[in-house]
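Task 17 of the worksheet. Students: predict the tertiary structure of the chain below and write it out as C-alpha cells. Keep your answer in the requested format; marks are given for formatting as well as content.
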Amino acid sequence: MQFFYIIPFIPLLVITSCYNNDYKNQDVKDKVLVKFNNKTLKLSDLSDVLINAKNKNDSDQIIIDYCNEWAKKQIYLDLFEKYLSYKKSEVEKQVQEYRDNLLIYMYQNAYLASKLDTNVTREEIEEYIRNHKMDLKLEESLIKAFLIQIPKSYLSNKLKKNLNITDLSEKMISEICSKYAFKCINHTKQWVSYNFFLSYISNTYTDYANILIESNKIIEISDSNFVYFIKVEDFRKAGEPMPDDYIAEHIVKPYILAERKKKLLKNLEKTMIENYLKNNKIEFFYKR
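Model answer:
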C-alpha cells in the first residue's frame, strides 16, 4: 500500500456574507461559496446554521467556519477514494448494518411504548425485597435532606431572627428560598449519594460530614461566602442494607420493567415470524 500524509489545514476562505434582508434575495441565496470537483456549497445550504447569527460579523464567521469544515470533509472523502477505495464495500456493509439496527431499535421502542405496562405493584416490590433483601447492601452512603444556601451579606442578625431559621415550616422555607436564598436543594423525598449532597456545601465539605450524620435537627454551618442551613431527614451508611424505598425505585422497578420488555420483544418476534410464514412472505430452507 502506498503511504501518504495528510496535512489537515485549509486556509480560511474569504467570503462576503449576506445578512438579514440581503439573505432573502434569491440571487444571494444561490451564491456559490465553495466548489469542489462537481460539488458546490451554496449560501442557501447554510440557512439553518445562520439562524443563530446575532449580527453580520457573527454571520461572516459562521460562514467561514462552515465552508472550511465542508471543504475538509470533501477532501477527506476524495483522499479515501484515491487511497482506500478497496475498503468501500466494507464501509457500506457497516453503514447498512448500522442503519438496519437503528430502524429495528426505533420500531422496538415504538412497540414497547405502546404495549409496556409501566405500573409496578406494591406486591411485586415486596416480593422482590423479601427474596433479595439480604443480598442488597449499599455501596455508598445515602442521605435524605434539604439545604438552604444564603449569602452572608443577606443574613444580618435581624433578618436571621425574623426568619426564625431554627423552626422552618414549609411556608418559611418557601419564603426564604424565593426571597433570600442563593440555592435551595430539597432531597427529602428521595435518596441521593451522601458525597453528592456534601458537594453542595463547600470544597471542604468533609469537615462537616460527622456533623450532618449525627444531627437530626436543622444545623447551621458556613464558609467564607455563604451560610448553609441543613436538615437531615434520614441517613444510611455504606455497607448497610438498602432502604426499601431505594430498592423499589432503583432496583425493583428497573428490573421488572426490563424483564417485561424482554418478554414483550420475545413474543413479538415469535408472532411476527409465524405471521410472515403463514402469509408466505418468508421461507426458511433449513429445518427449524
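Marker's comment: Residues 86-115 form one domain. The mean pLDDT is 83.
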